[in-house]
Design brief:
The structure is a single chain. The protein folds into 2 domains: about 35 residues; about 110 residues, no CATH class. Helices cover about 45% and strands about 25% of the residues. The chain has 3 helices and 6 strands, in the order ααββαββββ. It comes from Idiomarina aquatica. Keywords: Membrane, Transmembrane, Transmembrane helix. This is MSHA biogenesis protein MshF.
Amino acid sequence: MSAEEQSRSRLLRWLQNIVVVVIIGLLAMKLLELGIFSDRWGWQQAEREVLVKRFNENLMLARTEWLRRGKPGQVTLQTQQQSYQLEMNDSGWPSVKNGCEPLWQMLAGGRKPLATTSQPGRCDYELANSETESTVKLSYHAGQGRLQESLSD
């Protein structure tokens, strides 16, 4: 093989390697676009479920503490990070008088809601869902002591 043929052969191998690397890069970008940047794997739904679960578990902890202490007006709720003073209502659930956003931070933690509104005996929270461009509405009913979820546009 002459020097010119060897040079052409090296150039051809080099070009083939570049084409392979570009194709692999394009495939990797497509996989990232489908998997990481979209909610196809449901990470936003999983995050919402964790927040709702944590909120409801801390509600039950506060109620248990309220019963254990003899139904006082306030209880101290100890979480992993700190302790909170919660004002309780007559039914034994955390009162809306604590404030809707502080109540969310005390009981659910995590991502702050887009909007919070307060009505007598109720707090409404809205969380964004970037994939469907809708919001998820969560309502805490202090009389029943539970957080309910409903989709809204």
